[in-house]
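Late entry, evening session. Most of the bench is empty. Finally got around to the prediction I had been postponing all week. Sequence below, unchanged from the version circulated by S.P.
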Amino acid sequence: MLLAEDHETVRQGLKLLIDGQPDMEVVGEAGDGRAALQRAAALQPDIVVIDISMPEMNGLIATRALGEAQPGVAVVALTRYSDEAYVQELLAAGAAGYVLKQSASTELLHAIRSVAAGKQYLDSSLAARVAGAYVARHSKHASALKPAVSTRESDVLRLLAWGYSNKEIAAKLEVSVKTIEVHKANAMRKLKLRGRIDIVRFALLQGWLQDL
């Protein structure tokens, strides 16, 4: 795991916390976004825990760049920003986890273990708010939240919310990529989902992203 945090005191505290876990190890550190990309390229970590506010290159831009250069790496954003806009931007940029610095340390550990298992994770203090925004926007279509979504369509949405690609889902479910695309399109139409952020919100409502 790589830690990208510009405050050395915070970074060292995170290192002590993570290295104290029997299933985790910090293999490198970076004090800014550009250094994080360089260290990730050299060390090839499975997970990068990254702050949003950093010099040289902020965490949002670094997350996008990491996704392009190393699509196999899972990014956990660690930040003090609780605004929904930040959550949306980081998820859209490819972050698999979003944790608030003001939350208990166990929140970060839960996030790391979840993304290591190929899932996504949102700080529990944000889950209700993000899901609530989804419900508020769709409140006039309340009946549409309970359509006849098939079991296979639900499986596809769950895997999409966890961060799997269409190709990976097709392999898991032993069907063609085209079939997955059809299931995805049908489910999104029935649930009135407009994109990946809506899929994540719906997953929150179903309790799919809190793998505690």
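Two things to note before I forget:
The chain has a mean pLDDT of 84.
The domain at 2-122 is CATH 3.40.50.2300 (Rossmann fold).
Will write this up properly tomorrow.
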